[in-house]
Write a structure and sequence with these properties.
CATH topology of the largest domain: Topoisomerase I, Chain A, domain 4
Protein name: Ribosome-recycling factor
Mean pLDDT: 95
Number of strands: 2
Largest sheet: 2 strands, antiparallel
Shape: elongated
Distance between the termini: 39 Å
InterPro entries: Ribosome_recyc_fac, Ribosome_recyc_fac_dom, RRF_sf
Helix content: over 70%
Pfam families: RRF (PF01765)
GO molecular function: ribosomal large subunit binding
Family: Belongs to the RRF family.
Strand order of the largest sheet: 1-2
Number of helices: 3
CATH class of the largest domain: Mainly Alpha
CATH superfamily of the largest domain: Ribosome-recycling factor
Radius of gyration: 24 Å
Length: about 110
């Protein structure tokens, strides 16, 4: 009984899936994505990528602020601060590249 109600809820949600009840299992038939839907997902991917870039930049800024505070408080030397800044930028660049790589891979998946 509850399986039927769940299937009816899915059907009534109008989300593009057709539920088929098979005993105690609900199978969902997913239609092929249209070009328009693919484009929408790619735009969404772009927004998510920009959000992730922003979070990475924020993390870099937070660490950089702590590093500057430590330098001003004389807990680290000027040379250590410069070295840490270079290392921080390398790490940031590495993860920015990873984000780009993941986004390109996902875009290829969406397009195919």
């Amino acid at each position: 009984v509850i399986i039927r109600e769940i299937a009816n809820g899915i059907a009534g949600a109008n989300i593009g899936m057709t539920p088929v009840v098979d005993g105690n299992i609900i199978r969902l038939v997913l239609p092929m994505m249209t070009t328009e839907q693919r484009d929408d997902y790619i735009r969404l991917l772009g927004r998510k990528l920009e959000g992730a870039r922003g979070m990475l930049r924020d993390a870099r800024a937070d660490f950089r602020k702590k590093m500057i505070d430590a330098k001003n408080a004389k807990t680290i030397s000027e040379d250590e601060a410069k070295k840490d800044e270079v290392e921080l930028q390398k790490i940031t660049d590495l993860y920015m590249a990873k984000l780009e790589e993941m986004a390109k891979k996902k875009e290829l998946e969406i397009r195919s």
